[in-house]
Amino acid sequence: MAGKSWSFADDRRVIELAKASKSLEEAARIRKRTPERIRKVAMRLGVSFKSERKTKR
């Protein structure tokens, strides 16, 4: 199933959210997209997000 189309403005917003240190999950909620889609776009754009997941120590 095809999702919503992706625009240049969406790319810019993902970059802004990454620079604002938002988590991947938070960015997905804000953009109303799946975390997987945000992750793929972020990789294409060369930006990264932190994750809300807690790491085991």
Key phrases:
mainly alpha, 57 residues
Structure description:
The chain is mostly helical and 57 residues long. The protein is built from 3 helices and no strands. It has helices at residues 8-19, 24-31, 35-45. The chain is globular. The mean pLDDT is 87.
Q: How would you summarize this macromolecular structure in one to three sentences?
A:
By secondary structure, the protein is mainly alpha-helical.
Outline the secondary-structure elements:
Layout: H1 8-19, H2 24-31, H3 35-45
Secondary-structure-derived class: mainly alpha
- Global shape: globular
Low-confidence stretches: none
Assembly annotation: single chain
Tell me, rounded to a whole number, the average pLDDT: 87
Rg: 11 Å
What composes the largest sheet? none
* Percent helix: 40-55%
Give the SSE order as H and E letters: HHH
Number of helices: 3
How much β-strand is present in the residues?
Answer: under 5%
Number of distinct beta strands: 0
Head-to-tail CA distance between termini: 39 Å
